[in-house]
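Deliverable D4.2, example record:
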Amino acid sequence: MNSAEEERQLSQVTVRLLNKFPAASRETVGTAVGEAVAHFAGCPIRDFVPLLVERAATAKLGALLDA
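Output generated by the structure prediction step:
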């Protein structure tokens, strides 16, 4: 996967999370996605990074909003 495609998919992840967590601000969702992206920054195989980012950010947002 090239970097442009990864960025496109990560943008879609952000939109999905904003829809899934309407109580969360855009900044909160962006932070959760950004932290997850940073976690996977050193991974040489990038094909599943958007999926893994979405899962990690979903878990973080779920924990933040349920607290």
